[in-house]
Amino acid sequence: MAAFFIKVVIKIKKLIIISFLILLITGSIFAGTLANYTITLDNLAAGSVIAKEFIFLETGSDNFTQDLKIAPTDLVEWQFGVKNFNEQFVTETDMYYKITINAAATPGKNPIDPLEITIKDENQHVIGIIEGTGSLNIYNFFPLSTVGQSHYYTVEIYWPSNKDVDINYAGHNFGTSINVSAVASQVPFEQEPSTEPEVPGEPQPQPFVEVSYKVVKSWISNGVWDPETQTVICDNYHEFDINITNLSDQPINGWELAFNYSETINSIWHANIKEHNPSANHYIIENLSWNSVINPGETLTLGGIATGNGENIQFTSANLNGVGIEILID
Fold it and tell me: 234 and 173, same structural domain?
């Protein structure tokens, strides 16, 4: 069957105001009866590969309607194109366009809810998907050039089969119309914010413990005379508390707290230093026999003395019983 093209061509003029072109395509999709679910579908636009070409030169409008039947497991696709030239003329400005694709119930019918309508660009990248009914917008443009430009889009309509619900769409009371409208302008369109609902991500696990570090007090040690520098060298120290709070509803039976530390621990109480790697200043401290259990809601406090005046304390790679945590600085 011969290809079917509809073109709107209006001789171009020197544009001095914003031009708009609104072109409409309406394709109606009707549900086949249950007995016709295996019939080969008629192609949209009487067998043409390109169902419609929008040619943006000046103002104008056009529309056509084409019906087809579709049944469960059927896949139908058709294309439409956007151009900024014809056989004689090319637009003399940047040309921006907005295409709106809307899927809705055909007047007098109920929509075919199971339909999946996928819109792809000329590289077959998915722009968006309409499930059942809805709409989406495509924004694009042709930059100023002496060479004509074109973009092509594919509309893919698929009816996934579900034997439990397919029978509900038998008969002639169901139909979905796909309407494609295009508007062109010499200035960019203001894009609407997305109305698609946010897809919730994986629920984040709640922390089972909170660990905080608090500087209790700081001081400067008595000076020691350094004969090489002929000065008195004084060292800074501070006392600290580490609080471990059980936020879970289960007791913590035995605990090990590991971390890289910007200072050096000189002494510690209510805990034992199990391991210290000086090269990374990595510590592992563990419970004593009498404070190995931290019940739900309880806070265990341990303390110690470390170098430094207690300012700009940093912890990295912290974990409690192998679970990564953040040590809060009070």
Answer: no
